Amino acid sequence: MNVPNEPPNLLRALTILHEIGWITINDDIDPLQASLNDIKSNPHNLDFVMTDPAQGPRALEDVDFAAIQGNFAVANNIKLTTALAHENMTDPNVVIVAVDKKNLDKPFVKDLVEAYHSEEFKEYILSNPDYEGYHLPKYFNE
């Protein structure tokens, strides 16, 4: 089982494995200190190999399973819909667009927000198979 060697991304991978019932993990793990020592039980005797997150897709040749971040999967032509499980995305892990507070009222910011929330954008994303499996904005469900 290939997992990221960075504590925050390792914790994300361990959390998914915990949620699908393959391992149990300690409660209240510090994301900056997460390690394989945070695994309480490993009833399936998974062997863990830690690599740089970008190496996850290449590790698939040598392991049975790999925890791969979405951006690395997409960059390596791995369809997100082929995943065994997806992360339950929470606010700290969702990508956001931010602008300097002094630019909040600038036309480009208003145009960007309007475009992102437009029905055309939503329809494009939902109708394009390239985006299947992506974590979608909450407003898509409204």
Write the layout of secondary structure elements.
Elements: E1 2-4, H1 7-19, E2 24-25, E3 39-41, E4 49-51, H2 56-59, H3 70-75, H4 107-116, H5 119-127
Parallel strand pairs: 1-4
Antiparallel strand pairs: 2-3
The outline comes out as elongated
Low-confidence stretches: none
Sheet with the most strands: spatial strand order: 1-4
Strand content: 5-15%
Rg from Cα: 18 Å
What is the tally of beta strands?
4
- Helix and strand content put the structural class at alpha+beta
End-to-end span in angstroms? 37 Å
Portion of residues within helices: 25-40%
User: Number of helical runs?
Assistant: 5
Order of helices and strands: EHEEEHHHH
The whole-number mean of residue pLDDT values reads 91
User: What kind of sheet is the major sheet?
Assistant: 2 strands, parallel
Description:
With 142 residues, the protein is α+β, with helices and mostly antiparallel strands. It contains five helices and four strands; from the N terminus they run βαβββαααα. The strands form two sheets. A two-stranded parallel ribbon has the order 1-4. It has a two-stranded antiparallel sheet with strand order 2-3.
What descriptive keywords fit this protein?
single chain, 142 residues, 5 helices
Task: Quickly describe the structure.
Helix content is 30%, strand content 8%. It is an alpha+beta fold and 142 residues long.
